[in-house]
Amino acid sequence: MGEEIPLPSGKEFKELAIAYNKVSVRLRYHIDNMEKLIQVRTIELANANEQLKNEINERMQIDETLQKTNEFLDTLIKSSPLAIFSLDIKGTVLSWNEAAKKIFGWQKSEVIGRIVPNFHGTDGYGQRALQGEVFTNIELTPLKKDGLPTDISFSTAPLRDKNGNITGIIAIIADITERKKMEEELLKAQQLESIGVLAGVMAHNFNNVLTSVSGNIQLAKMKIQPETKAFDLLGSAEISLIKAQELSVQLLTFAKGGAPQKKTISISSLIKDSCTMAQQGSKSECEFSIEKDLWQVEADSGQLSLVFSNIVINASQAMPQGGIIRVAANNLIVDAGQDLQLEPGKYVHISVEDQGPGIPENNLSKIFDPYFTTKVESSGLGLAAAYSIIKNHNGHIYAKSLPGEGTVFHIYLPAFGDFIAAEEEAELLTGYGNILVMDDDKMLKIMVEEMLNVLGYESEFANDGDEAVKMHKK
Questions:
Q1: Rounded to two decimals, what is the model's pTM?
Q2: CA torsion angle 211 395 318 400 (round to 10)
Q3: Among the listed residues 317, 326, 330, 241, the one whose alpha carbon sits nearest the alpha carbon of residue 291
Q4: CA gap 67, 209 in Å, rounded
């Protein structure tokens, strides 16, 4: 087709051949154009196909990147120590990670598709966040699943659709319980330091007076027969003086002058003697469970005696009708990772448990604060002094209590070596010779001079170091 044929001789055939040849020319033209058009369309189709392949590859790469990003974010959210959850505009939970469960106590299955517990009750912040307000590190104390409060830091950001409308929020919660505890510890230390400035001045002078009075009482008792009424009266005065001296030690504990004078001791007998003496006059009774061969500690026995006495007095006051005060002591090895706020090592653990009404939750964190007390007859210094003393011994003290279940005080003191038998009290021996004494307090000098005379010694006194050196060189 498309080829011309020879013209025949007949007229009709000639006309037919001419017509055929014209059609053949037009047909060849159309065929040529069709082939060109097909070539163009083929090229366009190939280009379109290549572009589509590129778009598909790009989309696949984007989808793969999005999938990896989503997997990364999902892993990050699941493993985050921060509680992360999202809500729709009605406050319904859409997502809830593992940290949220740990902080608040609700399982994921308990909250997904439901209104988040207590969210609307967090001082209005939840509702305001759902209205688009952004919050950063707002400190709140919501209730957990068990009904107990927990300290959190609360941050939110709104979720929006493509038109900018708010569809919900994402919330990020940090558990700041430990940080709050550290802040409270720092505040207590600052309070004790400020009190120490005043206490140091007062207690030093007061202690000098008490020392003089105590010495004179001892001298007077030496010169009176034990069976006389005067001897008994001096004994009563001595008991009152001991209480005054304990108050002086409490005040000195808050000052630099109250730093412990440490020596290596075995505290088994110290615990028993201090607790037994402290509960005298009350209706309570101490029961002891002290481990045999208790490790020795490096401590100030006078200050530790004050700690045990104050805690037992506190326990007795919690049980005005009487009860059992259980005092226990044992050796303890603290390993890394134990939640005791202690360095790993060997410790002596002492516990004092009463059967009182317990301490309300809102007061438990305040019991070691200076001057905090709920008792009319208490100064509020006893437990504060105990706290300061134990801290100065590089130990730890805390209380556990629930209303109606009594209170347990736990004390941890660093162990120093192994068990040693308690030292026997040295006998006071008389003698002779000349003793140089340095002190600027007149009452103390009179008392010391008389005491040394009773023991057979002569004495000389200097008011300060320079005078003492000059007298010594004579």
A1: 0.46
A2: 170
A3: 330
A4: 81
DSSP 415: B
Q: Domain 80-175, what fold?
A: Beta-Lactamase (3.30.450)
Q: Could you tell me the sign of the dihedral formed by the alpha carbons of 367, 368, 372, 377, in that order?
A: positive
pLDDT at 98 over 80: yes
- Number of residues in the chain: 474
Coil, helix or strand at residue 107: coil
Q: Are 471 and 436 in contact (CB under 8 A)?
A: yes
Please state the rounded mean pLDDT for residues 199-226. Answer: 80
Domain ranges for the chain, please list them: 1-79, 80-175, 180-259, 262-425, 434-473
In this structure, the number of other CB atoms found within 10 A of the CB of residue 139 comes to: 12
What digits encode the pLDDT tens for the residues 259-274?
A: 677 889 889 989 998 8
Q: 288, 272 in Cβ contact below 8 A?
A: yes
pLDDT at 376: 47
Sequence-distant (6+) residues with CB within 8 A of 249 are 258, 302, 303, 306, 385
In contact, 306 and 299? CB cutoff 8 Å: no
CA 38 distance to own-chain centroid = 81
Tell whether the model's pLDDT for residue 122 goes beyond 80. Answer: no
Token pair, residue 93, equals: 């939970």
Q: Does domain 262-425 correspond to CATH entry 3.30.565.10?
A: yes
Write the DSSP symbol of residue 9: S
* The Cα angle at residue 400 between residues 398 and 404, in degrees rounded to 5: 150
Handedness of CA 353, 357, 361, 367 (dihedral sign): negative
pLDDT, residue 408, reads 94
What distance in Å separates the CA atoms of residue 310 and residue 283, rounded to the nearest whole number?
16
- pLDDT of 250 > 90? The answer is no
Structure tokens given for 447: 């008392």
